[in-house]
Amino acid sequence: MIRTVGHSNHTIDHFIGLLKAGGIEVVVDVRSTPYSRRFPQFGRERLTQSLSGAGILYRYEGAALGGKPTDGAGYDVLAARPEFGQALDRLITGAADATLCLMCAEKEPLDCHRTVLVSRRLAERGVEVEHLLADGRRLPHAAVEEALLAATGEDLPDLFTTASDRTERLARAYARRERAMKRG
User: Fold this and answer.
1) C-alpha–C-alpha distance, residues 50 and 98, integer Å
2) What 3-state class would DSSP assign to 69?
3) Could you tell me if 36 and 29 are in contact, meaning their C-beta atoms sit under 8 angstroms apart?
4) Which residue in 37, 59, 111, 123 has its CB near the most CB atoms, within 10 A?
């Protein structure tokens, strides 16, 4: 299992509390730029120090798994890159030894590339993914995908697809969500 969380506008104490409640041993930062002007407690150095004091390790994977590449590539292009696949391999291997949590900035899973880009590809590889929510609840990735299908109108097959075409409908739903996120 791999978990995810958004640091949002949390205090560092609340954030660490969410991680502790989730049994997190390693935070994997998937932000392209591991800093926040508005919330300096989540800058790479300060965050590393705060997590270390709580007994949680920090790892940075934003270079391979970040959602804002310098060349402006879309998520399907990013996911096809060798370095992306290698980073997913590192996550899967690391999750065998420790409880990992992917961290980005956005509070809601469907507002963030950690879900639309990274968690999607982990789930496609058979990894169980769970999202830690700001109020302490946990949400299985499958439930997030069902919400995505419903929100994009892809929850029911159309005249040209069958009920078994969930993979195609989910791909269309993810593509719509990515476009909406980029429009901001």
Assistant:
1) 19
2) coil
3) no
4) 123
